[in-house]
Amino acid sequence: MLKLNPQTLKKFRRFREIKRGYYSFLILAGLLLTVSIGELLVNNRALVVSYEDSWYFPIYTEFHPGTDFGLDYHYETNYRELQAAFSKQESDNFVIMPLVPYSPYENHAPTGIYKPEPPDLALKHYLGTDTTSRDILARLFYGTRIALLFSIAFMVWVYLIGITIGCAMGYFGGMFDLVFQRLIEIWSNVPFLYMVIIVFSVIPSTFSIPIRIAVLLTVMVLFSWTGMTYYMRTETYKEKARDYTAAAKIIGASHTRIIFHHILPNVISTLVTFMPFTIVAAISSITALDFLGFGLPPPTPSLGELLKQGTANLRTAPWIVTSAFVTLVLLLTLVTFIGEAVRESFDPKKFTVYK
Amino acid sequence: MKIWTTIVWGAVYTLLASCGGSESSDTTEEMITRDNTQEVLDYYAAKPDFFTFKTIADLPDNLSWQNGSELPDIGSPDAIKGGVQYSSLQDFPRTMRLVGPDSNGSFRPYLQDYITMQLAHRHPDKFNFYPGLAESWAVDKDSKTVYVRLNPAARWSDGEPVTTDDFTFMFFFMQSSYIVAPWYNNWFGTQYTNITKFDDHTFSVSIPEAKPDMDYMVLQMLPVPEHFYKALGEDFVDRYQWKFQPTTGAYVVKDEDVKKGTAIALTRQEDWWAKDQKFWRNRYNVDRIQFNVIRDIPKVFEAFKRGDIDQLGLNLAEYWYDKLPNDDPDVANGYIYKSVFYNQRPRPTYSLAINTAKPILDNKDIRVGINYATNWQLVIDKFFRGDYERMKTSSDGYGDFSHPTLTSRPFDIELAQTHFAAAGFKERGPDGILVNEAGERLSFTLSTGYQSLKDIPTILKQEALKAGLEFRIEMLDGTAGWKKVQEKQHDIHFAALNVSLELYPRFWESYHSDNAYDVPYLADGSVNPDRKIKVQTNNLESMAVPEMDAMIDAYRASDNRAEMMKLAHDMTQLHHDHASFIPAFYQPFYRLGHWRWIRYPEGFNHKHSSSAGHFFVHWIDQSVKEETLAARKSGESFGPEINVYDQFK
To answer: Closest residue of B to A201, CA-based?
Structure first.
């Protein structure tokens, strides 16, 4: 059983007291939960199909060709049409579709022309369609999911590398610190966005989309970890000079033990306060890259791509830019609120008044 | 001459790659001066069969000279000279050179193709030749020679007269390795056999075969100013990078108008030598054409709507119907005219080029299957809203030389699956994509450099899934896309080659094995197992079929129209069966929006025009401009002007 020390518990209590941040946290957690089961909510595959006394749950299984349901084609069943067909027949067959019965990739043009259509409740295009008649809610939903997962993965990696190197620099000091700091100074002067654009433009397209996303993540991490090392280095220096570290040393604790049991737990509060802002930065950069056309490969749904479409069709289809913009603002605001609350609750000077 | 191999930069809207920022003025200017007069003379002397020098007395006297004077004039006598036209570029030209690396860009029409004068030009309505630099010409079929008399009045824009020497020098120039232009080296090294100078304004050019259009082969030639290239040498690419070559045409680029990375302008020569010549007098009316670089298409449109740009192509349905609808106030009040013009000319080959050098794609059944799994009709119906037509073959629009009956393969899931199954792709994997027994998925990269048509691959991808085929989409910027396909790194690429107004299609460039591999076959005719792909050619399909090669060679050597026609049909059929080319669509018209002060002749334009600006028949009416701007302020309406010119439909 995890035993938290009273200091930490106190910090959690304070976090809960800061309502704005706390509720933002709850909303975001709920959002994460929702998007992680997104296939059940936004999908063009049916939740349940009952056909000739057999039950099918196509969402998480292999694809079902139309022939499985008595249709005359071998490609993926169009469940919306199947639903309509079943409801016309006088039989026990039925289809239950998710709330938003569209995938983020399919072109669904009720008018027969690929163009942006305004929101339409009857067609279940709750936020309208984009320039090739894809459902905006579906694209927004999955785009948000990718952005969130991407930025969380980004944060984890940046912290792993940043903490390791920063901690090592602070702890060992001397030549190691000197050399590494110079390297970091040089490395951090490489313009991040350009490097991402250059590296990503030479990745061969034979890689599958998940691999290309992973490469993008790697490149972004490679050029982003340096910022973290400065904080870690100074914090470690500070803690290293404290008496308890000296005491641990004297009684013969190993480096590993000192770092993991004494120094890290004491500097973690500094790190935690940065986390939400790292996520904000990651979401912003991935969106910016997508907007510029250098981010996630098409047709991956993404906020940046929607924003780009939106700005290109500002006059004729304002609903595209509105939904993408509102989503982005909400997302970034939520994370920022959480960040502020975390920072405040970890601040030991509770009653400091700035004048 | 027009190089037909220019890639079509996605109709009027395409994004080209971003280019470097502004550079300080010509830093490559070096002090070394060179004079190649002697080198050129030595070159002529070393090739006496090619460069012949005779006197005017040697000119045969039984020639029948023509001068095209019976043809109707071009443009409108109502045209007014003057005014400044504002236009936009998506990318700043990478060089001002007309040949060599990077010269084949989207600005070159304004430096050369639409501007400079050939010896004679195809009439945009009648197809026959009207005179440019030539005063008259005579074709001698028997000796495979075309005789030319230059117009003595012809001048370069720097005042130097145009003489026979500029044509002999042209051969030296185009055959030299200094210009780093293999296509030109090949063309001018193999397609012409002799130039004979009779005097400063009379010469003849011979070609290897008396092709049905042999007059075109010679009359399309453009002189190269000998006096300007005195310093031609190994450093040609750098030395002439930003130098404007004197032109025989109406527009020049002044040094002070080249603002690298941001703007460039064409200025009309007040004393242009041809300004009163028939066929030329009513054209090139605008005093100055200002091109500003605007990279973003939606911004270009906004600039047009503000009146900062005078006219804009609206070929995409999205712009024609949605962004500038007929009930837009500016259109409804007649401030902006919308015009559709149906033209007739060979169509750019919008298509998917399948690289047959890649594994799996070297299987013909796979390629046929991909043909059937590609739903272009849906793209035409739903994306282009039915305005475009499906292209049938790679050589549509050449009249009798186009195949009379062949059509492209329709979207047919069953047939696609049959062909995929024949190639071993029988089962569908868990994601619905076909797999073969080795477990390979039927998945290919579909790349393109057409940013403005970026929605098309996503539509094709969704449809191909139905046949169990996956397209991985790779969206590149224009230059990177073209580079990829020139390096033959693509699986399947969506692009188009531009074509010029010619009598019959060309096959060698795109379908001959010489342009696919370094050594395609061994001496015994079998496939060379170690052959290497040849890059930087237009054989985008890496097509190497011995029968095709034989027919192409016969076609190039033929001087018989009927035989060539038969060969063209057979080659088109073979190419169709080879299935490495998926014909996409063509646009039977062009359409644009233009502010009211941009005036066009009655009937709008000429039959064979490729775009509204192609022949520069428009003009700016300054008084109309003031009137329109005033009316726009006060809200006065002129009534909408939405015109369809379908006289050549």
So the answer is: B476
